[in-house]
């Protein structure tokens, strides 16, 4: 399919760890739809409720709305387990408290695969990453390493980041439209983010970029993941 390695298939449960609502939908949802369609379990855990993410709305209004949009979005791709940890949106840091929550969740869910956010400073030249994303990704890596050093029986076999330096690929040609609908479920968020562009058009453009065929993929859409840790 592509010069990238195929994504592992010898697993049953994946844990998606992200900072905000809509983070899973920009690059992972197409792959998640494929996996749930194969009968695999995928769990979403979000550090925050994205309560500062919609201009003109108070956190008290915005947080519940964004949680509801995330749950609806997850359901479209077959994910029924979604949890929110209550860390402050736009003020996420790689703290002992965050690392402890990550470790507790990993041990409780017992996944074989972790999917996390890209932690690098830029997606591409001139396209900076968000600080929340970088801090959260660093916390995930550190929590994984601590679990590994402790000899925990629940350490997942693979930890991937969804980012530009992919090492592994998932064929998501069939899942393109469902991924578009999943992102479009963040309707209020997207409609405020870009009021001049219909939400469905925004979602289609984003998923088109995120799953664009790469060299060697024979025109097949893929979701790419970078392997950061394995055991």
UniProtKB/TrEMBL annotation:
It holds the Pfam family PIG-L. GO terms for molecular function: hydrolase activity, acting on carbon-nitrogen (but not peptide) bonds, in linear amides. The keyword Zinc applies. SUPFAM superfamilies: LmbE-like (SSF102588). Keywords: Zinc. InterPro entries: GlcNAc_PI_deacetylase-related (IPR003737), LmbE-like_dom_sf (IPR024078). GO terms for biological process: glycoside metabolic process. This is Hydrolase.
